[in-house]
Amino acid sequence: MAPLRMTDRLAPVLGARTAQALEKGLGLRTVEDLLRHYPRRYAERGQLTDLGQLQVDEHVTVLARIARVDRRPYRDRRTGRNADRLEVVVTDSTGATLTLTFFKQAWRERELRVGRSGLFSGKVGSFRGSRQLTHPEYQIIAESGDEVSGDDDTVARYAGALIPVYPATAQMPSWRVASSIGLVIDQLPDDLDDPIPPETRARHGLAGLRTALVAVHRPDHRDDVARARERLRWDEAFVLQTVLAQRRASAAALPAVPRVPAAGGLLDAFDLRLPFTLTKGQVTLGDVLAADLARTHPMHRLLQGEVGSGKTVVALRAMLAVVDAGGQAALLAPTEVLAQQHHRSITRMLGPLAERGMLGGAEVSTRVELLTGSLSAARRRESLLAIASGDAGLVVGTHALLEERVSFADLALVVVDEQHRFGVEQRAALAAKSRDDSRPHVLVMTATPIPRTVAMTVFGDLEVSTLTELPAGRAAVATHVVPALERPGHLSRAWSRIVEEVAAGRQAYVVCPRIGGDAEPEEDAAADEAEAESRPPIAVLDLVAELVAGALAPVRVGVLHGRLPAEEKDDVMRRFAAGPASGDGIDVLVATTVVEVGVDVPNATVMVVMDADRFGVSQLHQLRGRVGRGEHAALCLLVTEAGPGTPARERLEAVAATADGFELARLDLEQRREGDVLGASQSGTRSSLRMLAVLRDEDVIEAARLEATDLVAADPDLAGTPALARAIAALLDEERADYLEKS
Ligand code: ADP
Ligand code: MG
Description:
- The protein is of the alpha/beta class.
- Among the domains are: 43-165, CATH 2.40.50.140; 266-467, Rossmann fold (3-Layer(aba) Sandwich); 477-658, P-loop containing nucleotide triphosphate hydrolases (Rossmann fold).
- 37% of the residues lie in helices and 18% in strands.
- The protein is built from 24 helices and 23 strands.
- An 8-stranded mixed beta sheet has the order 6-7-4-3-2-5-8-9, with no helix packed on it. The chain has a 7-stranded parallel beta sheet with strand order 13-14-12-15-16-11-17, with helices on both faces.
- Helix 11 (336-350) crosses helix 17.
- The longest helix is centred in the N-terminal third of the chain and has 32 residues, at 222-253.
- It starts with 10 loop residues before the first helix and ends with a helix.
- The structure holds adenosine-5'-diphosphate (ADP) and magnesium ion.
- Magnesium ion is lined by residues 311-312, 598.
């Protein structure tokens, strides 16, 4: 018989029935799928599972000892006949118990004898207050010295002391997964193709693939498991980082027009106009971007930075540089509100520099166009024309910019602002808008600081730059948790504080998790489902009514949320930005998280977040970043009904205790599952990251990235590592399948 290959289907090896159960229940189709189905944990022979930990409704596999077996007669309601029920009580070493119930299967008494141990598997139910498994699958484990009779085929011997426990289903209990894997392992060739080249393995002391797979499925010691896992984590990191290294390499090989600005242009004029001195980080980054833009290959850079670190100015300077070099720059924002705000603030910062062709426009000047989905037909036509003619040097917009009808005279640089993932498809759409075959330079800015390794994974095809320093003279934002139930007085003090700030010429935000008004889909998935109580989250519309009639009666209150028409949103933001001095200005903005990212009103000094426990840690940090942007001391109040000591309350305390966004991002990510860390659009990772934890395994990811980069530089097509090429093809296939599923 020919040795198995990793790509072989399972049916020929295991039989059609088993193969089908593995595919249907666990999604395992090939030899490799099965071998990469790693044990969730290991039961130790003689060491019983802690039964006190079992959760109702969970599918579990436990190692337990039979403590009692009772046969009880009962009357079957359906047939009206008497029957027997077998009740087996199993126990762990702490004395906690679990009841196994079998109806009309009294014959199982023969196997289920008091004193024996076994693996029991099923869904935990609850009956009269005690936990039970009904008709569990089980396998009795032979103790040393136990007689294993030939007919007693439920009794299995495990060679090692460690019994692997697999993610399993009712049809495919853990030990059947184990025996399937055993069959496959026995037929594996000795020289299994390894995706990690031998030199890389040697450099990092990694076990070979075959050794690691055997050890993870049939370990003798915990040490074997640890070594195997280390190696298998490397597999995942290495394959992913090689894909990313290839993407970086091929993107870097594309042609781009170098954009070298002429001196004495917009950029120089803008720098002279700047009302502040650039931070060291801003200057350095400016140089980095200028160097990138001068190359004959497109820049693909991620700019991440602390909230308020001044990313926008950095991006704007790069945009002006390409205009000075004769090209156009586009800024892509995730929402209308943000696009409008960017348009307004860029126009304001540029002043006469943005008034090309207008009376009072500077000698060197350009035009800043706005393009969003909600423009009137006439304005839209006007914008499209200015973009196509090249009159508009700078274009700000939403995804509407990517539409086919939008054509640029000479698109040189695309800046993608905030959050939303900018994928391969969008890049293709943009490439189609640039001159000839060349590609525009791309700068991506993230709103939220993200830990390095996440950046390396999620944005791994980009070069990463980080702004850590905040502009000098920023007053810190004092953050406090306001416990609404324990200290109702503190909340009314918060409202009077807002009134005082407004009297002193400042402004404030009040943010709620919900719009209100009617049954609506949530505007934002801020709420933590697990902690959702019976009370609906506080809604903007309800709170506004209450505040306007009460605590905030003396001030001018505006409302902002996603359901408002675009012009109204724009008008509200404009009036809030205009501030107290303006006749129609707004002092206090009651809003949903539409103000979360990018909104920049330096005069605002108070941020009150209602039901703060419903927001994520990073989201709260973003919200807090909306204040403390000017010279005045700022205050952020996190209002919550979460009691002291609860996890929700502790998260809020953590936000109050640190101003470090990277630290908070880490905390945020630690509390989520790995899949969520990478985001839905980082598809393909569903099963490609099984062992690797992006936060925990920083060292592995970093080392794998270096190795992968070198390998791709030496052998771009991976001709020398066919197993790696195959693993990558499989990963990309899965990614494609996921993408199709979602579109
Ligand atoms: P973010 O990085 O959060 O996007 P912004 O770019 O919106 O931050 O900048 C926040 C505020 O700081 C803006 O009002 C901006 O004009 C101002 N700012 C940017 N750079 C500096 C600086 N070097 N000195 C003082 N203020 C600055
Ligand atoms: Mg910003």
